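Re: the 88-residue chain
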Amino acid sequence: MIRDNHPLLFALDNEGMTIIQNYFGGTETTHETDQTYASAVEAQQHQARTRIEHTTNHNWAHDFQEMTGALLDAGLAIEAIGEHAVTD
């Protein structure tokens, strides 16, 4: 799964008022959570656990060109790209 957000999202603190990270790609963040990206309803429908055992999460910020270029360089084809009005 690739989830693309504007690089400014990674640069801002949780309140969205202070820049705390590098705006450009390469920024890494680590946080602890036992929640998945799937909602509780989706998890129940697929009989999956709504909590995960390994709680350390690492995120790296890469720009869109870097991500798509890596796929193309690996010989993969991009068949569709879509945008959504919300980020959750």
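The first strand starts at residue 28 and ends at 32.
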